[in-house]
Structures are given as structure tokens and as C-alpha cells.
Design brief:
heterodimer; A: mainly alpha; 0% strand; disordered C terminus; B: 454 residues; alpha+beta; eight-stranded antiparallel sheet; 16 helices; disordered N terminus
Chain lengths: 95, 454
Amino acid sequence: MADTDLTTTDALREALEAVLKKDLPELTPQLRLFSDLALDSTSVIELLMALEDTLGLQIDPDELTPDVFETVGALTAYIDSCLSADLPAGHGPVR
Amino acid sequence: MSAHDPAPADGFGARLKAALVGDPTARFVYVNNFEVERVWGRGEPNLPGTGLSFSSATVNRIEEVGVLLADAQDVVVLKDAVDSDYAGYLAALGAAEGTHLTVDRNVPERSVTLDALESPRLLAALRALADGRTYLMPLGISADEERLAEAAGLPLAGPGAVVCKEVNGKIFSRELVDAAGLTAIPGAVCRTLDELAEALSVHLAAEGSRVVVKESLGVSGRGMVVLDDPKRGAQLLRMLERRAGADGRVSVVVERWIEKQADLNYQFVVGRDGGVRFETVKTALTENGVHRGHLFPPALRPDQVDELRAAAEVIGKQLAAAGYFGLAGVDALLGADGTLYPCLEINARFNMATYQNRIAEHLIRDGQSALATTFDLKPERVHGFDEVRAALGDLLLHRADRDGRGPRGVLINNFATLNATFLAGGKPYGRLYAICVGDDEQDVRRTRSGRRPC
């Protein structure tokens, strides 16, 4: 799953850079979205939209909990779980 | 505490009491239920992701700022006791004079009102205050505060929850502005997905246009999204369609993005008799719609202040006609082209600025400036106020006067939020609320940046 993790992290970085309108350093799983990357609550919807664009997946915002947005690692794990639920085994994300 | 102590004959608290209960020396029991919008918004259609609750342990402890509002005869209901060194610091400045009553058990994720409702010891103490001149004065009134008033045997100093919820909607604000002929930001009220689609097609069509979509009962940056191209508009509609009920109901306003010189916030009190009294106007510091502080006095011309005063009269009369009485804070905007938009939204409740009113009257001299602000910190353990005092050193505002020139330095006006999140779950996130006071704007900004007073 290392490749998939890398792809998800890259997609998240792309989405975060679009929302935050700035280049970001390499994302590590421990980075906190709010306090380290300065994401704010107004940007959550924009981030969800950008993730839908980059990964082609549909996120149900009503399923989200604040823990999902705690760290980069928590959000990538959530995205991966959406992707594996959406797609037959052995397929990568739809681009 | 069974009898009233002598009350000041004037000051913000006395004016508020005179307007709301007809007695400037009444006793108010302040319950500072921040983010009451969460309760008002229950069951209402919302935007995607806005049900997420971030930092609620910190938000719920902003309630401590209420200690700065109380006069000697007043009571403040708190989720936890004030740090004794912090209480001593405030007392020495004359900044906090009321009595504090704490809930029986502080549950960090719960509002002060819900904690109070689960507190038999506190409720008994509140019932003992009932003397016909003691009133419950929440930040804002929802069904929770109505239940608390009943359980405490104290009348509310404001109208019922149904009225409060209605007049706090951004839809109410926008319709009032349109009906009253105040200068409105181009936009629309949307109660259905079809109306939202129409509004986005109108206001997002031009090249380079941006709109902001705001949930009617959203708060503090949640429940709003900025859209800068039609593709994003279509995407938002799809997200909403996936979750909207069969009736396609939404509850939002759409407004074109206006480049600004300044955000403004003004306060006035609507009396029980419908009279309107203007209180303050301040520059509001915001980032992406999230409140970051206030600067006062604002850099406005006298005619601009007069325009806001006139708007307050118009809005106050409409609030009174809707059955509201109490404090109202209105967000306004001074556009980059000089156009003054006097009402973006009405918050018919206390605002952060309200909690500065008493201390501003008490401490800050005419001609001085103040910057209400926050310091975000990463505490890795619980800190006492004495450590903050030591860290600030000479920057701390520690005396009310400098030989007749007024005070200078950093006044901490909420300490509980430094430790709230750490105490709730060990996460290193904390915040101090402060008011930097100085001789002018440059002076207070210098203090905010951590440079020692000259």
C-alpha cells in the first residue's frame, strides 16, 4: 500500500495547496491540519471539493468527524478508506 | 449572597439593565453560552461539513471572559473556578467585581448552560438569588437557556428562544436590509436548491467574480464557503443535492465578494420599550470570516459613524418590531471604493466586543487605543497565570493608570482557554485572549508584536 499512500498524500497536498493558496513543505503524517498548516474551518468545504476533483471520489460530509481533520495521517487514512470502499480490489484511484 | 451590594449608577451594565428590565441596579446572572448558534441551527439545513465541531473545549471556556462584564452585585456562572492568581490580577485592576458560581461538573465538550442544567448544587444557589430583581442574562437565548431559567427560578432578561433564533438568521438580516433600503451587498436569499442555483448563476457568471455562500445560522467561519468559479458553484450544488431532503430545502444567503478597506462591528441596545441606544463601533479583525479581534477606536470619519448610528436606529426598530429586546452587534463593511455597507449580519446576542465594554469604560482613557486579540499557543502541560505574568513581564498591563495617562500593556481577558484543550484531552492547543492598550494604534500593534513599551 506504500504507493497508494504516496498517491493519496500527493493528492492531499495538491488539494491543500489549492485551498491554502501557498506551497507546502513535504507532508508528514503527524502534521496537524489546523495548527501546523493553518487550515481553518471555513476552508473545509473547499478542501472537500478539491479532493473530489483530484481523486474523483465522493465524500459524504455527514460522515466526517473532527478527528478526520486532526492530522495529515488521519485524513489520508480516511481518504484511503473511501477509495477502497468505492472501488473493486486491485484498482487505483480514478483520476 | 442574598442582598444586593451597592450598584454603580452608570456604566454599560447599568444601561443594559435599565433598557432590559427597567432597573439599572438589578442583578444580572451572566451565562456566557458561546456558539449558541449551534443550538439555534439544530434541525436547520446546513452546508456540507458544518456540523464538524473543532476546538469545542476551548470555545466553551471562552465563557470565562464574562467575569469582566460583571458589576459588584452581579453573578457569573462558570464552568470552572478562575485561576486564583488570575482572579487576583483582575481584582487589582478593578476589572472583575462580580461573584462567581461554578457548575457542579465541567464537561469540556458541553456548553456552560448544559453543565449548569446538570448541577443541582449550582441550581439551588441560583434559586436562592431570586428576589424579584435578579435576572438570567445569557449571551444568547436558545431553548437551553429557557430551560435553565426555569430550573433556576430566575426570569430571563431577554425575549424567548423562538424570537432570538429568528432574528439571528442571516436570512432575516438580508431581508431586513432590503426592506429598509439600507445599502446591500449584491446577493440573494435562498431557501431552495433552485433559488441557490439561480443566485449562483447570476452572481458567479462574470469572469473573476467571487461569491460567499453563508448558512443562515452559521457561526464564526463555519457554514460558509467562498466560490470563485461556476464549476465550484455546480460542485456545491451537487454536494447539496446528494444530501438535501425531497423538498430541496436550503437556508443560505449568497453575496458577491466585496474588496474591503475594513470590517466593522457596532453594538446597540434595543430596550424593552423599543428604544435604541448606540454603544460602540470598532474595526473587526477577521480572517476568512473567522473573528480574530477588534481595534478601537476605528479609523472612521464622523459622517461614517453617523451613518452607522442611523442604521442602528433602523435595524433596532425592526428588531423591536420582531419582538426582540437586548444587545445587538452588527457586522458592517467599508468597501475598497469607500461604499459603506451598514449591515452584513445582525447578531442579536452578546458579541466578543460586548465583553470589552465594561473594561473599556473602566480602564481606557479617551484618546487611547486598544487591540483585542488572541495568542495561539501550544501548551505541553497546564500553566498557571503566574507563569504567563512572568513570561509577559513588563508587557503585562498591571496598573490602571500611568500618572493620569491611562494604562498601557497587555490585559489578559480570558485565561481559561489557555489550558482548556489540554485539560480536556492532552492536546497541545491553547489560546489566550488579550486586550493590548496603548497611546495609539501604532503603540498597541507594537505591543501585540511583543515589543516592550517605549
